[in-house]
Each structure stands twice: as C-alpha cells, then as structure tokens.
Design brief:
Blueprint lengths: L1 E6 L3 H12 L4 E4 L25 H14 L3 E3 L5 E5 L2 E6 L2 E10 L3 E3 L15 E2 L2 H4 L7 E5 L3 H11 L4 E5 L9 H9 L3 E4 L2 E8 L3 E8 L5 E5 L2 E4 L3 E3 L29 E3 L11 H21 L1
Helix pairs in contact: 1-2, 1-6, 4-5
C-alpha cells in the first residue's frame, strides 16, 4: 500500500513525486516508456525559469534524479486500469497491481495523426512524429513539417539546420506558436511556408516520395516531392483507460480545475492530460506541485 501512486513520469508526474516525498509520503511513479515524456524531444528549452538553455533530455534527467534521491520509487509499466476497492485505489498494469490511498494521473498525451491513407504503414519510412529523434536521417534532403504550434515551429527550425529544404505546412494563415520562433524561421533561407493547406495524400512505394497538399481556400492541389514528413499537429490525451473513474471532456481531457481535483475522491490529475488553457513545461510542473499538495491533504485526512 503506497500513500500515492503517480501514473506518468513526465515533468508533471515527477514533480508530483518530489512534492509528495518532501511531505513524507510513500510514492510510486508508473511510467510506460522513459521518464520525461514529450519534453524529451525538445532539443533546447528556452522558456523555463532559472536555466535559459537546457535540453529536454537533461532537464528530465535532473528531475528524475531529484525524485529518486528523495526516495520516490519508479516502475516502468503502463497503467491500463484504475479501480476502487475497499476504499483504496488499485492501479493495474500488465505485470500486476498497485494499491494506493491516492492516485495522480499525469499520463500526458500522444501524437495526433493526420488521418490520411498509408500514414501508419509509412512510419519509419518517411513519416515521423519526432524531428529531434529522426531528423539526422534527412541531412541535406527535402522534408516537410505539418502543424502550427510550438512543436511544429521548433521542428521546422531544427530541420532547417539539417535539411536542404524545409516546407512548413499549416492549415491557417498564422501560427499558434511563439512569434520569436516564427521570426527565426523567416530568417532561414531554406524554409518555405505553405499556408491555408492540408496534407491530403501520401505518395509512396516502399518509402515516402511525395505528398499532395490541398489549399483550403481555392481547392488547388500541389505535389511536393520530398524525402521526409514530420507530423506535429497536436496531441491526444492518454486518458481512455481511466474514463470509468474520472470525467473527460469532448476532446478526452480530464475535467479538473486549477486545484487538480477530478471530482473522484482521492484521484487527482496533473499535466497535459488535464483540461486547461495553456500546456507548457512550466504549467506541467505547477500542476504536479498542486496535485501532490492536494493528494497529501487527502491522505492526511484518512
């Protein structure tokens, strides 16, 4: 029986572990893959207070080491179910079950797909969702990045230093991401902006050879020959396994306020899988601190 089980080892989950351990509670963090989550793919974090430049990997390692040093336990297993039993919370993984007085859901989100034919087949054969992971395979080649948020802008900027040509394709005429990154991209001589357009077809044999892009305003279609396509069109919250316990909104995010209470007694939420206006590293860690603080109050009240 743990005091608190944290589901998810990203910045929110690991911060929650730090705060819960500092409050003297026993803590287990369950992480399906590797600690850090989405931030692992960020080559340079520039907007987190204290450190002007740090890679997502280095940041994640520091937080992980801090949580471990305080005594938090980690198990690399995917939580597939959460249920209540005899007044306690039971988290189920393919390897077994873990019982806790309180649970913090910090599962984050996964890549949203374009939804075009052959997309799954071509993953690793020209289609990627991580520029920092796969970008070096396309050195001095032609690539495209799809999306309009910070991830897409950062991917395009990263690839501009590697690839021969980068097409940045966005379905609107302006970007949601930070204006400073947009300005940097416009200063690059090898970045072409394709506005008001969607990727509607992947052209391939064994590997991706080209894409068809359809303009939303006039319906015109252009074919872009390329070697790689990086998809950065948003994220999908990983909450499906817990829909029986917590309320989700129409987009699949856990409904909770700034206090991170889910409405289910003893179950809290933190990070990108929570319904909120801003999803950034700093808000993820803030959520982790708040969720842990509230979970500690709950455990103390039992």
């Amino acid at each position: 029986m743990y005091d608190i089980v944290v589901v998810g080892g990203g910045p929110a989950g690991m911060t929650a572990a730090i705060y819960a351990r500092r409050a003297g509670k026993t803590v287990l963090v369950l992480e399906a893959l590797s600690c850090g989550g989405q931030i692992l793919n960020t080559p340079d974090i520039e907007n987190y207070p204290v450190e002007a430049h740090i890679s997502g990997y280095d940041f994640s390692q520091k937080v992980y080491e801090q949580a471990k040093g305080l005594g938090a336990e980690f198990a690399f297993e995917k939580a597939v179910e959460l249920r209540e039993q005899d007044g306690a919370k039971v988290v189920v993984t393919p390897k077994g079950t873990y019982t806790a007085k309180a649970v913090i859901l910090a599962t984050g989100s996964e890549n949203r797909k374009l939804g075009v034919e052959d997309e799954d087949r071509l993953v690793g054969r020209g289609v990627s969702y991580c520029a920092t992971c796969d970008g070096n395979f396309y050195r001095n080649k032609v690539v495209a990045v799809v999306g309009g948020g910070n991830t897409a802008l950062e991917d395009a900027l990263y690839m501009a230093d590697i690839a021969k040509t980068v097409y940045l394709i966005h379905r609107r005429d302006s970007f949601r991401g930070e204006e400073t990154t947009v300005r940097r991209l416009k200063e690059k001589g090898n970045v072409t902006f394709v506005y008001n357009s969607n990727v509607t077809k992947l052209i391939a044999e064994k590997r991706l050879k080209a894409i068809e892009v359809t303009n939303k305003l006039d319906g015109s279609v252009q074919t872009i020959e390329l070697n790689g396509l990086f998809v950065a069109v948003g994220r999908v919250p990983e909450n499906q396994n817990f829909a029986n316990v917590v309320k989700l909104d129409e987009a699949g995010y856990v409904v909770a306020g700034e206090d991170c209470h889910t409405g289910t007694e003893g179950v809290f939420v933190a990070g990108d899988n929570r319904a909120k206006a801003l999803r950034q590293l700093v808000t993820a860690t803030a959520d982790g601190a708040m969720a842990a603080t509230e979970a500690v109050k709950y455990v103390n009240s039992l």
